[in-house]
Amino acid sequence: MSFELLKEMCGIFAPAGDEYLMSRFILDYVEKNKRNWKVQPEVIAGSHLQDCIILVFGDKPQTAAIAHMDSIGFMVRYERELIKVGGPRAKEGYRLVGSDSKGEVTCEIHLEDIKPKRGEAKRCETPQKKIVYKADREIERGTNLVFECDFREDEEYVQSCYLDNRLGCWNLLKLAETLEEGILIFSTYEEVGGGAMPFILDYLKHNYLIRKVLISDITWVTEGVKHGKGVAISVRDSFIPRRRFVKRIVEELEKTDIPFQIEVESSGGSDGKEVQFSPFAIDWCFIGAPEDNVHTPDEKVHKKDILAMLRAYQYLMKVL
To answer: Quick one: pLDDT at residue 120?
Structure first.
């Protein structure tokens, strides 16, 4: 399977709150490729959805799959300081890119010790660090910066910044090729706690009979979820999907040869949180490939898990 599309998507600038370029890329991709898909979707986008996109397949869809378009990143504050957008890892020497009114920007992360103010009591033994940038010129305050993309691929793995969640979006675009009935949603703001899902869910509830939602996102490699062992089905993270729905998903996948792993965590979250907190009775489940080096420029996912993720969505969107 070719990953050229994924490579291109990983290099698109789209930190949370600034997803326009990714939204435009997906809309252009859909317009150029939908004629080759099994079913022609209705494309719903515009100012009433901000930068979000909804693709509707078939006449009576009841299941939706959601992938968030945004990534983590950094924003320039004052005196060269960088503020995190979401939860990126900040390491000395990480290269960042972006642009301001003066043109393109390339810089590196530098970690500075925070010196206590005069007369301030020492708060802890470990020096506190401030994230700043090193660059050839001053960068305008409010500028968004993201990790510089270095996409790598070998026989077993793909590795890059922003596989979370360009891989989730890639999964939906590949799913679109064969999908006959269902809704695909590309959301925003997930990396900073959400915000787009309430108006998306309201739109769906008033226009379609959606009862089930699958979250096409990326999770973690842990002591219980391994590379190459299949897509992860999350029983819980910070939130708990309805067990009856998760059980049905597991039972359906057990009828196939699609490899999967059960994930149980006490932290982490996704757009599933906002589905659970909505006033609508919609079931949800997080289903995604596990990655290592989370929220760094070196996120790493096994190709077997990517294929298992796609096959799981192709199957579940038919049978749920």
So the answer is: 57
- Final residue in a domain of this structure, among 147, 163, 179: 147
Mean pLDDT within 94-101: 98
Position 128 scores a pLDDT of 82
- Whole-structure pTM over 0.90, yes or no? yes
**What's the mean per-residue pLDDT of the chain?**
95
Are 297 and 205 within one domain? yes
Looking at residue 199, its pLDDT comes to 95
Per-residue pLDDT tens over the stretch 142-163: 999 999 999 999 999 999 999 9
Same domain? 231 vs 92: no
- Give me the number of domains the chain comprises: 2
What CATH number is attached to the domain comprising 128?
Answer: 2.40.30.40
Q: 3-state SS string over the chain? A: CCCHHHHHHHCCCCECCCCHHHHHHHHHHHHHHHHHCCCCCEEECCHHHCCCEEEEECCCCCEEEEEECCECEEEECCCCEEEEECCCCCCCCCEEEEEECCEEEEEEEEEEECCCCCCCCCCCCCCCEEEEEECCCCCCCCCEEEECCCCEECCCEEEECCHHHHHHHHHHHHHCCCCCCEEEEEECCHHHCCCCHHHHHHHHHHHCCCCEEEECCCEECCCCCCCCCCEEEEEECCCCCCHHHHHHHHHHHCCCCCCEEEEECCCCCCCHHHHHHCCCCCEEEEEECEEECCCCCCEEEEHHHHHHHHHHHHHHHHHC
- Whether residues 251 and 306 share a domain: the answer is yes
Same domain for 34 and 117, yes or no, is: no
